[in-house]
Amino acid sequence: MSERCDLTARETHFAFGSNWASYAKLVTEPQVEEAVKGLQRLAGGSLDGKRLIDIGCGSGLHSLAALRLGAAEVMAVDVDPKSVSTTVAMLKSRASEKCWRVVEASVFDLDREVLGTFDVVYSWGVLHHTGDMILAMRKAAALVKPGGMFIFALYRRTKLCGFWKREKRWYSRAGRVGQAAARGSFILLLRMKFARHGLSFREHVTQYKGNRGMDFYHDIHDWLGGWPYESISPDEVHSLMRALEMKEIREFAAPYVPMGMFGSGCDEYVYTPMRQVE
Fold it and tell me: Which of 69, 133, 154, 157 yields a CA-CA distance of 20 to 30 A from 259?
C-alpha cells in the first residue's frame, strides 16, 4: 500500500479524538459563546433555518455553536469514534432539544447523492489532516448547495513545514513520556519568546479561550501531534476553488508568509458556488 493511500486511513492518524474528549470536559458556557462568535464572524451572521454539516467535528463545540446560531439541522461527522462519542455527549447535554445527528465517517465517504447538499459545509482545521487534502476539499465542496457556503480553515504553508511534517510523524507515534517532553520543550521556547518581547505568557494562556473557545494546552498537543499534515498557500486555495467553480465571499488570512517557528497558523476562507441554481 502506498503512503498516500495509507495516510487516508484512520489508523495512521494522530489520536485527535482522545485530545478532544479531554478538552470537552473543560468546556464552559463562556467558551461556547466564543465559539458562537467565531462561527458567526465566518458565516457573516446567523444560521437561521440552515442545514449544516460539520466535517471533523472533534469535541462537538462548533456543531453546538451552529445550533446556537439557529441552524435548523446539524450533521456532525468525524472519522475518530472518540470524537463521535464526545460530540454526542456535548450535544445531548447542551442541545438535546435541537435537530442534530452525529456520524462516524471519513470525508472521503461523504456522497451528495446519499446525503444531499447543505446550506453550510463547515470544516475548520481538519482537511489538512486527512492524508489527501486536495481530494478532501473537493469532496467537501461538492456538498455545498447553490447559494450555500463552504467555510474552512487550512494550515498556511511556511518555510518550516518540512520540519513540522517530520516532527508530527514522530510525535504521533511517540509514547507519553516523549510527547510530554516535546510539549515541555515547545512551551519553554514559547515562554522565552514572550519574555524576549516583554509579553506575558500567563496572560496569553488565560486569554486563549477567546480564540474560538479553545484551550491552549490541548491546542499545543493537537499542533505537535497533528498527523497527517499538509499545508497550502492562499494562492493555491484560490486556484483550486476557481477550478471547483466557487467564488470567495470572505477571507481571514495572514498578509505575510510566517516563518512557522511556533506553528503555521490557519487561514480561514468562505466560498460559495458560482452557479446559484441546480
Answer: 133
**Whole-angstrom Cα distance, residue 159 to residue 48?**
41
Split at pLDDT 50, 70, 90, the class of 264 is confident
Q: What is the 3-state secondary structure (H, E, C) of the chain?
A: CCHHHHHCCHHHCCCHHHHHHHHHCCCCHHHHHHHHHHHHHHHCCCCCCCEEEEECCCCCHHHHHHHHCCCCEEEEEECCHHHHHHHHHHHHHHCCCCCEEEEECCHHHCCHHHHCCEEEEEEECCHHHCCCHHHHHHHHHCCEEEEEEEEEEEEECCCCHHHHHHHHHHHHHCCHHHHHHHHHHHHHHHHHHHHHCCCCHHHHHHHHHHCCCCCHHHHHHHHHHCCCCCCECHHHHHHHHHHCCEEEEEEECCCCCCCCCCCCCEEEEEEEECCCCC
The answer to whether residues 146 and 277 touch, using CB atoms and an 8 Å cutoff, is yes
* Domains of the chain (ranges, CATH numbers): 3-158+229-273 (3.40.50.150), 161-225 (no CATH)
pLDDT reported for residue 277: 60
CA 266 to chain centroid? 9
Interval 90-114: pLDDT, tens: 999 999 999 999 999 999 999 999 9
State the virtual CA torsion across 14, 232, 39, 99 in degrees, nearest 10: -60
